[in-house]
């Protein structure tokens, strides 16, 4: 059975803390990718990003997980992302399937994406930092240089 790949745009990207904790040694392929019609924010009060609907492009990576680690890894990431269940209002992130474009092939593929539940975050409207370039990795690297 073909598994649905994972699109990551924040702390699960290679080189960041949650990649090392949840994905290191479990990814068999990584593809640079983009997701259209979204907006990306940095949540400085939490230390990670939030994805919401918008008109921008968000950049990240499509990760292909090894078959032997797929279920355990996805379950661990669901827990880390605060995903309780489909359309559950208590989710910190909803896990949804979106069409994501592979930047090497320009082909689109369906991927799991963790989409932020702004309704559960009272600080979002006043404290989230909008990232118009759509690249959290770039944002974090530029902040650490300053």
Strand-pairing-aware structural class? alpha+beta
How do the strands of the widest beta sheet line up side by side?
Answer: 1-3-2-4-5
**Poorly predicted segments:** none
SS element count, helices: 4
Strand content: 35-45%
Total count of strands: 6
| Percent of residues in helices | 10-25%
Protein model, in words:
The structure is a single chain. With 146 residues, the protein is an alpha+beta fold. It is 21% helix and 41% strand. The protein is built from four helices and six strands. The chain has helices spanning 17-22, 70-80, 124-127, 136-145, and strands at residues 5-8, 27-43, 48-65, 93-102, 108-116, 129-130. Strands 1-3-2-4-5 form a five-stranded mixed beta barrel. A hairpin with a 4-residue loop joins strand 2 (27-43) and strand 3. The longest helix is centred in the middle third of the chain and has 11 residues, at 70-80. The mean pLDDT is 95.
């Amino acid at each position: 059975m073909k598994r649905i790949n994972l699109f990551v745009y924040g702390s699960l990207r290679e080189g960041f803390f949650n990649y090392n904790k949840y994905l290191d040694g479990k990814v068999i392929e990584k593809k640079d990718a983009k997701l259209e019609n979204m907006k990306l924010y940095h949540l400085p009060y939490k230390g990670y990003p939030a994805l919401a609907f918008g008109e921008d492009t968000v950049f990240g990576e499509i990760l292909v997980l090894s078959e032997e680690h797929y279920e355990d890894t996805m379950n661990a990431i669901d827990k880390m992302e605060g995903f309780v269940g489909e359309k559950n209002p208590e989710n910190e992130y909803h896990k949804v399937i979106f069409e994501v474009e592979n930047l090497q092939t320009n082909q689109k593929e369906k991927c799991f994406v963790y989409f932020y539940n702004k309704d559960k975050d009272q600080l979002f409207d006043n404290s989230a930092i909008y990232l118009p370039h759509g690249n959290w990795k770039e944002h974090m690297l530029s902040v650490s240089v300053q």
